[in-house]
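Continuing from the previous page...

OK, I double-checked the sequence for Geranylgeranyl transferase type-2 subunit beta against my notes and this is the correct one:
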Amino acid sequence: MEELKAEKHVQYILSIEKKKDNFESVVMEHLRMNGAYWGLTTLDILEKLETVDPDEIVSWVMKCQHESGGFGGNIGHDPHILYTLSAVQILALFDRINVLDIKSDISGLQNEDGFFSGDMWGEVDTRFSYIAICCLSLLHRWDKINVEKAVNYIVICKNLDGGFGCTPGGESHIFCCVGALSIMGSLRHIDKDLLWWWLCERQVKSGGLNGRPENLPGVCYSWWVLSSLIMIDRVHWIDKEKLVQFILDCQDKENGGISDRLNDAVDVFHTYFGVTGKLQLDFHLLDYPGLKSIDPAYALPVDVV
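Thanks. Re-ran it with the corrected sequence; updated structure tokens here:
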């Protein structure tokens, strides 16, 4: 089996910052905070975080913060919980969470029924519950929310197939509800064997994983599905060798980066989740000594958490 082209992927990530004026960067400007988290975490996992200037990055992150306490996806963009978590994760990578003024935090986005909104406009999604719980856990602000209500809302989103919807009755998706319950110490609410079956059925003949029935496989699901299986201690029911090969086949072996599937264009999102998925698989396949391990719930290196 071929190897992960780690050095190529490092060079690809470092090259992205030099292309801020190209078309792809301009149309993705609003997601720059997320992109920074994906790229920087990949560098940390590959033990190359020292190749960037932490002061410059932290300074930019803090310029994206609003008076509400939330962060936008870039300077001058509206705050949203999605970008706020990425900002906190970036600061955690550099051990700079102390620069935050957390008097105004995302606990104010929790509704009386326990769910969280994504921003001031009130959209509801269990992704936002995960993000809020993950963020508040990293900030040590559990005292600011009603944890019991947060758990109960996720539980009422559970479906007959063992998965969880974005809202009650919604189509089953993966990771966010499992991750949130894991962080809150509430995995007992999951029917692990039923969810295990649903997750394992996400593997297709190519070895890749998809996010829902009849979907094409994608490298990012190597993280979403795999991490969910790890959190419920059921990772042994998929073909790990075939999944590794699927990820490796999606590498750009000349220029670095990983795509969602074979022969597609690479991007930093799939590069991050491809690298993290591959390293988690290595650990469960080979028990590599000295491997920088990833926390399956926080999507950060264990030493950072």
